[in-house]
Design a protein that fits this description.
Lipocalin, eight-stranded antiparallel barrel, two-stranded antiparallel sheet, 13 strands
């Protein structure tokens, strides 16, 4: 009887582990959306990116995810604000320069000077695209673009952030982060929450 119960428990454990593995391997709805996205239409203009964009990522155990907000203005300047409320962490750039890079195959990237990559957490973001390696000069950390081919897959983001501009099935644009891993892709996106050129709440004058 004890032997039968033992085998039953083993089978249950194996089934549980299989289910967990299957869930971990299944792409999320967000990932499916990004995988099915396309480059922006031929009519795309830089002004189509003006507004406020937000993404949730970069947190860790006990602190939850951070809120990453990008405010892009038509004059070619932007502001990034990243917060993790529970940790009391806030990073805010001044109004820095942003610009668009176009490729022959229709792909579009947006470059944000002085912005940080918070997908991998605070420590990675504060490296500013450089890996500290003991004594001496730091090493450049290359990120990976799953939409590109050949050498264009490797993206240098030293003291700046580079995002892919993509169009999803609804016709809306999203901003997709580069991956910090080549296998599997680690995709996160920002969605537009406003098309109005809003100032930073942290910089708003006191009434």
């Amino acid at each position: 009887m004890m032997k039968r119960i033992w085998w039953f428990n083993v089978v249950l454990l194996l089934l549980l582990l299989t289910a967990i593995a299957a869930c971990c391997c299944m792409p999320s709805e967000s990932t499916k959306t990004i995988m099915g996205s396309e480059p922006p239409p031929a009519t795309f203009r830089e002004t189509d990116l003006v507004g406020t964009w937000e993404g949730h990522y970069g947190g860790y155990a006990g602190y939850g995810q951070g809120l990453d907000r990008l405010i892009l203005r038509a004059d070619g300047t932007f502001k990034q604000i990243y917060k993790i409320e529970k940790q009391g962490y806030v990073y805010e750039t001044p109004w820095n320069k942003w610009w668009v890079e176009r490729f022959p195959d229709g792909r579009v990237r947006v470059h944000l000077e002085g912005a940080r990559y918070y997908v991998g957490g605070i420590e990675m973001a504060e490296w500013d695209g450089l890996l500290p390696v003991g004594v001496g000069e730091p090493v450049i950390y290359d990120f990976y673009d799953w939409f590109a081919e050949g050498q264009e897959k490797w993206v240098e983001m030293v003291r700046k952030l580079v995002l892919n501009v993509r169009r999803i099935s609804s016709g809306e644009l999203i901003l997709v982060h580069m991956s910090h891993s080549t296998d599997p892709p680690y995709w996160k996106e920002l969605v537009r929450v406003s098309t109005i050129e809003t100032p930073s709440s942290l910089q708003a004058p006191t009434p």
